[in-house]
Amino acid sequence: MVKFILTDIEGTTTSVDFVYKTLFPYFIEHLPEAVAEFADDPFVVKCYADLQLWAKEERQQSLNESATTQLFIELTQADVKQTTLKALQGFVWRIGYQRGELKGHIYDDVPKALQNWHQQGIGLGVYSSGSVEAQKLIFGSSIFGDLTPYFSFYFDTQVGAKREVSSYQKINQAVGHPAYDILFLSDVEAELEAAQLAGMKTIHLARPNTPPSVRFTTVPDFSAIDLQSL
Question: Average pLDDT, stretch 198-224?
Answer without folding.
Answer: 97
